[in-house]
Design brief:
0% strand, mainly alpha, 108 residues, 6 helices, 65% helix
Length: 108
């Protein structure tokens, strides 16, 4: 990023693994929550384990994943508040988010 006024720049703390992932510029970047969640769902539903499920099990699993969306949106909102708009979400971030997403889901 260039030509950003210094007063608009903020220091952001992140784990070493997140920083390393950002340095690698991981493949699969998407823009926005809608694209992120769609990509996440496709990745889950495209896996070998999902393919082994019966059609009914796939339907139930798909519904359960879709029910996680508001919880993911909340976690992404918190990340945006921490890092700012346009922040890159890494695979490491997702791994850190998943337990919180599942906890939110179980609490509702």
């Amino acid at each position: 990023v260039q030509n950003v006024p210094r007063e608009r720049v903020q220091h952001v703390e992140m784990s070493k693994t997140v920083a390393a992932a950002l340095e690698r510029e991981e493949e699969g970047c998407v823009d926005g929550v809608e694209m992120f969640f769609s990509t996440f769902v496709r990745a889950l539903m495209g896996g070998a384990m999902f393919a082994k499920l019966t059609q009914e099990q796939q339907r139930v699993a798909s519904e359960k994943v879709q029910q996680l969306r508001p919880h993911f949106e909340k976690e992404l909102q918190l990340l945006r508040e921490e890092r700012g708009c346009g922040a890159v979400v890494t695979a490491e971030d997702i791994q850190l988010m998943l337990p919180r997403v599942m906890a939110r889901s179980k609490a509702n």
